[in-house]
Design a protein that fits this description.
Layout: H1 2-27, H2 34-37, E1 40-43, H3 59-64, H4 66-72, E2 76-79, E3 83-84, E4 96-100, H5 107-119, E5 123-128, H6 138-143, E6 157-158, E7 179-182, E8 187-190, H7 205-221, E9 225-228, H8 251-255, H9 261-271, E10 279-283, H10 292-296, E11 305-307, E12 316-317, E13 320-324, H11 329-343, E14 350-351, H12 361-364, H13 372-385, E15 389-393, H14 414-425, H15 430-440, H16 477-482, H17 487-499, H18 502-506, E16 508-512, E17 519-525, E18 530-536, E19 542-545, H19 548-551, E20 555-560, E21 572-575, E22 580-585
Parallel strand pairs: 1-2, 1-15, 2-5, 5-9, 9-10, 10-11, 14-15
Antiparallel strand pairs: 3-4, 6-8, 7-8, 12-13, 16-17, 17-18, 18-22, 19-21, 20-22
This protein binds alpha-D-glucopyranose (GLC).
């Protein structure tokens, strides 16, 4: 009897603990913000739509497509750099932050784009590229004139090493040394990207003042935030240490998170960001799971979100961005789960599979040969059912694929060209390199948007600056719009479903059967609704056995990428190749 009372007391204690935990988890419910509920769509202006027939996309071209964007259901447009630029790196080399690139139009065009978006209840975020400028920026032109020029310290200048070579052995992201000798003053300047992209010296308060005032210029016009280019690289190690002898090749991490990084971001937040109701997302090259919350924890007052690079590295060999490696679904799940857990209650994730620097998502994570439509839809299901803000890249909503680049002349990217030259100079395997670039090259995502089956895919009336993917006659927005069960129409549906169900935005994420090699499944537990998402990431039919905590519940099919609605029977779901289903508990 005594032991019965004891176990009853223990049982009561257990209930109390569970109750407290529950209370705690509901108390910890995510703080709501418009940018957490938003769906962001990246426009790469050069390749989106050409309104004036010069083969290059422009701002009026974007304006012509605003109703298309509205019909997709996205809320925020992230516009790639549209500032004045000599285009060494397609606008990521800015020569004037307060002027519009001639090829893209005028400030009046920009103002009407912003007004057109706001009129449709959409928002606009700009690409803030302030780790570096163009070497044609007025600041750099002054800076290189003499050692005592007032702009000298706007950039990072160093004397040569004793042998006359560069000050240290740092390499540029685009290959070769990160230092360029300038004969006017016989010093080297730092460029972590192309030599036409000198790095700004963030330790100089005058640089920061100039950047903040430029940010006010755009925010006062009414823009709704920034995507911050390579934000993690702003602060440099003042010792500029060479890579150690046992260096593992992870130079992004070596350059990132400098000693004053967070001090500068806090300052930027205080002096600029906090004064507006905006969103910020930082491109955080070299930032790992431990460092990420330092950028995005709300109580630190820095950024709202970052783009992490771990998932984008899944198919590269570590320390060698040029070599492909095979990956398996459990690794993908593990990265997603890890980042979700790390951010839960501490920050907010961005959810993305591609952008202008990465291959087409259906070619990389789906199956563009055998199940292009099906796999493109399942990737959409993933993007729209995760906790975090989803980011889409233009054309992925049509299931656009990597391009069939043949020779080096088909490419346009400075990154590809520089690496090609370096490998050639070293007598390396050029064919192998080109194979890798066909798979990973950034130009894959930069071929023109495929609007219809007219010449140049309806993107332009003139031969575009980069080849149109010849599959445009099959894959284009007009066709996708007309087919009921197209990738585009599925995106519209799944976007609208997410927007009507905040549980998919804020609810807890609980992965099911992590080692399963074919199925990615999870529960999303919102305050009002519980969801079950089951996605077949393979080209085979599979039977997925739900674990006990999900098996016996009453699941209603809400959205199914095959429109057949497989129900949960005996705790099992049978999925066709690349099929995905969203269920809601009744
Ligand atoms: C970022 C941009 C990329 C650019 C680089 C240098 O990674 O996304 O396109 O080349 O920064 O600005």
């Amino acid at each position: 009897m005594k032991s019965f009372i004891w176990s009853f007391e223990i049982y009561l204690l257990g209930l109390l603990i569970i109750g407290c935990n529950k209370m705690e988890s509901s108390q910890k419910a995510e703080q709501q913000n418009w940018w957490k509920e938003a769906i962001v769509y990246e426009v790469y202006p050069r390749s989106f739509n050409d309104s004036d027939g010069d083969g290059i996309g422009d701002l009026q071209g974007v304006i012509q497509k605003l109703d298309y964007l509205k019909s997709l259901g996205v809320d925020v447009i992230w516009l790639g750099p549209m500032y004045q630029s000599p285009n060494a790196d397609n606008g990521y080399d800015i020569s004037n932050y307060e002027k519009i690139m001639d090829e893209f139009g005028t400030m009046a065009d920009f103002d009407s784009l912003l007004a057109g978006l706001h009129k449709r209840d959409m928002k606009l975020i700009l690409d803030l590229v302030v780790n570096h400028t163009s070497d044609e920026h007025r600041w750099f032109k002054e800076s290189r004139k003499s050692k005592d020029n007032p702009y000298r310290d706007f950039y990072i200048w160093k004397d040569p090493a004793p042998d006359g070579g560069p000050p240290n052995n740092w390499v540029s992201y685009f290959s070769g040394s990160a230092w360029q000798m300038d004969s006017t003053t016989n010093q080297y300047y730092l460029h972590l990207f192309a030599k036409k992209q000198p790095d700004l010296n963030w330790d100089n308060p005058a640089v920061r003042d100039s950047i903040y005032s430029m940010m006010h210029f755009w925010l006062d016009k009414g823009v709704d935030g920034f995507r911050m280019d390579v934000v993690s690289l702003y602060s440099k190690d003042p010792d500029f240490p060479s890579f150690p002898p046992d260096f593992n090749g992870d130079f992004a991490h070596f350059y990132a998170n400098g000693p004053h990084e967070h001090e500068y971001l806090k300052e930027m937040n205080r002096r600029v960001l906090s004064q507006y109701d905006i969103m910020t997302v930082g491109e955080a090259s070299g930032v790992n799971l431990d460092e990420a919350p330092l950028y995005v924890s709300p109580d630190r007052h820095e950024l709202d979100m970052i783009f992490q690079f771990e998932l984008m590295g899944i198919d590269h060999q570590s320390g060698n961005y040029l070599e492909h490696r095979d990956w398996k679904l459990p690794e993908f799940k593990q990265i997603i789960t890890k980042w979700d857990t790390a951010m839960a209650g501490k920050g907010w994730n961005s959810i993305f599979l591609g952008n202008h620097d990465n291959p087409r998502i259906v070619s990389r994570f789906g199956d563009d040969e055998n199940y292009r439509r099906e796999s493109a839809k399942t990737l959409a299901t993933f993007l729209m059912t995760m906790r975090g803000t989803p980011y889409l890249y233009q054309g992925d909503e049509l299931g656009m694929t990597n391009a069939p680049f043949k020779t080096i002349n088909d490419f346009r990217d400075i990154d590809t060209f520089n690496k090609y030259k370096e490998i050639k100079a070293k007598g390396g395997d050029i064919d192998h390199f080109l194979d890798q670039e066909r798979m990973f090259g950034r130009d894959n995502a930069r071929t023109p948007m495929q609007w219809n089956d007219q010449p140049y895919a309806g993107f332009s009336t003139h031969e575009p600056w980069i080849m149109v993917n010849p599959n445009y006659t099959e894959i284009n927005a007009a066709k996708e719009d007309s087919l009921q069960h197209s990738v585009l129409n599925y995106y519209r549906e799944v976007i609208s479903y997410r927007k009507n169900h905040p549980g998919l935005v804020y609810g807890d994420f609980d992965v099911l059967d992590p080692p399963n090699k074919k199925v990615f499944a999870y529960l999303r537990n919102g305050q009002q609704n519980h969801f079950l998402v089951v996605m077949n990431f393979s080209g085979q039919e599979v039977t997925f056995q739900l674990p006990d905590r999900a098996a016996t519940r009453n699941w209603n099919v809400e959205l199914d990428s095959y429109y057949e609605g497989p129900s949960v029977k005996n705790g099992e779901v049978v999925l066709k190749p690349w099929q995905s289903v969203i269920y809601r508990e009744l």
